[in-house]
Amino acid sequence: MSRHVHLFPLTEHVLWFAPQGLKNSIEQLEDVQETFNFRFTAFKILQSSTPSDPSLKDKWNELQAMINLVDCCRKDVLAKIQGLLGRADTLRDLLVLELSMWQDRQRRACLGDVCDTSLQQLEKWYTESAEDLFRLLWLLRTLDELRQKITYEGDPLPLQLCQLKQRLQEQMSCLLKSAFVVEIQPKMPFPSRRPLLLKTSNKFSVRVRLLVKLMDQDHKMEVKMEIDRDSANLVGFRRFNILPSNTKTMVKDRPQVEGLVCDFSHIVRAW
User: Fold this and answer.
1) Other beta carbons less than 10 A from residue 199's beta carbon
2) Dihedral angle of Cα 79, 84, 88, 89, to the nearest 10 degrees
3) What pTM was computed for the model?
4) Do the Cβ atoms of 257 and 233 come closer than 8 Å?
5) pLDDT in tens, 201-220
6) How far, in Å, CA of 147 to CA of 30, rounded?
7) Is residue 244 reached through a cis peptide bond, with omega within 30 degrees of 0 on the bond before it?
8) Which pLDDT value is given to residue 176?
């Protein structure tokens, strides 16, 4: 009997990071910066009109205190981003582990074992994780806009923002690459045929799926199937023809087909 234990029921509420708290901190930082800008502008006007005003020194000290507060808020935001990226790393590792367990069940199902090969839950986790990463990318861009409005000596944003963006983009790339799976292994169009049992000169089909179920309606997402250039030198190599095209457009939630998928349905084993 097939047995599968999910790792996530005990961990998803602890590790699933929502950047809402970070969004609130950035909004607080924006409010502090706007207040500083207003007071600094008023200070410059007063300084140019009445340079001997005795209150200028106190106002300058107030501005220094405010820029210190801006610096404190920026460091707090950066620390939260570091924490979120660390939790995202942990979450991605758990997702990859869950995916490897699914791949093991798929292999056993190809051999005739009765296994749950549904991708619905994995797709939900992958999509939510990607959504959070894209939200975090948007917040980093917002933070960069705040940096452009105010900078000062010792400002932590110029250097750390660049590093954090690079780390986030690497995480997004790793997540999307692992989310691309072969949902249905090569299979001939005969009910009695198991997957991966292919006859020469007979066509077979394969379905690929992106577990990150996000799609830009203004841009097509295409999948291109290619044969390794050096595969002819491998022991046991077989030649395949991909008809009529090796490029397909991914479609979201077709009738009776869930997910963001595309089918290559006219592949022929030549020899």
Assistant:
1) 11
2) 20
3) 0.81
4) no
5) 777 788 889 999 887 777 77
6) 10
7) yes
8) 92
